[in-house]
Amino acid sequence: MFPFSLTHPRQNPDVARQAHNSGYELIAFDAEKLNVFAAQVRYCEPHWHPAPELITVLNGCFSLALGQRSVELAQGDMLYINAEEVHSLRAEVEGSSLVTVQFSPGLFDELHPIPGLNWCTQGRAVDENHRQVMQRLTHLLTTLVEHHAPFKRIAATYMLLDALTEAGEPDQRAESSLREEAMIKKGIDFINQHFDQPLSLSEVASHSGMSYSWFSRLFKKVSRYNFKEYLTLVRLNKARTLLRDTRIPITEISHSCGFQEHKYLIAAFNKYCGLTPTEYRKCYFSRQNSPDAELAPGEDCLCLPLNPKLIELLALSNRYRSAL
After folding, report:
1. For the chain: N or C, fewer Cβ within 10 A?
2. Looking at the domain 175-286, which fold is it?
3. CATH topology of domain 4-173+303-323
4. SS3 for the chain, per residue?
5. Residue 294: pLDDT band by 50, 70, 90 thresholds?
6. What residue ranges do the domains of the chain occupy?
7. Confidence check: pLDDT of 21 > 70
């Protein structure tokens, strides 16, 4: 099981291509009907998906934008993210890691709808609901690591969902907030589909149906960056993919990703990755024959194995959180 950004969507190719240039994430679920992954993460750009999600911080500290809210999560903190809710994440401490459970929409039906919840442990004392969620998350991970029988794994999944519905309060975001979030999503989609062209904040705001100042203010809340920085990061991410997966000359990559000149791509790499495009490409290919032990320069995510050590890390984070 891998993060949604690393999975291959099973939809038809036209839908997959459209989603690839969108903030909407297509998640491929296996027979478990959930994705579970652990990772060291530096930054995850704004996105949304039909799967509700539970995040637990294993160590370090993360800053999240959840819709228009900002949340700071420390070791042992947990957060439920609703289906279709736009969110982004940034590590505030180097080496920060988390474990995430994404629940397939296939787990729900008309009689058992996807829970719409407001639940976050940040700033709260550990109570019985928190303990129940952590206990059932640990049990679910154990059933996966130890390859328990399928019915035990699916039962553990529903038991975790039950604990979450007991712990959380009904999601009561105002209609005005949901409309604004829909507009921001429209703007993010537009940027992701036209990043290789000259783009201005005015153009994106107009496409989203918002004023320049209104869009600018809300966009920074959601993405954690201003428009110019975010556009540079989108172009940088596309360039990193081409540097890893192709042998296309770097000058050609810079133009195909929307950088007007080669020097702007180099400047972006130096600023956000701490190395040049050439160094990044060399580092990536030099790591192909050796297992990644730590998050490499220029990368935003390193997957951690689902094994007994992960269960130990989760237990350690729980003890740390309970001791506060």
Report:
1. C
2. Arc Repressor Mutant, subunit A (1.10.10)
3. Jelly Rolls (2.60.120)
4. CCCHHHCCCCCCHHHHHHHHCCCECCCCCCCCCEEEEEEEECEEEEEECCCCEEEEEEECEEEEEECCEEEEEECCCEEEECCCCCEEEEECCCCCEEEEEEECHHHCCCCCCCCCEECECCCCCCCHHHHHHHHHHHHHHHHHHCCCCHHHHHHHHHHHHHHHHHHCEECCCCHHHHHHHHHHHHHHHHHHHHCCCCCCHHHHHHHHCCCHHHHHHHHHHHHCCCHHHHHHHHHHHHHHHHHHHCCCCHHHHHHHCCCCCHHHHHHHHHHHCCCCHHHHHHHHHHCCCCCCCCCCCCCCEEEECCCHHHHHHHHHHHHHHHHC
5. confident
6. 4-173+303-323, 175-286
7. no
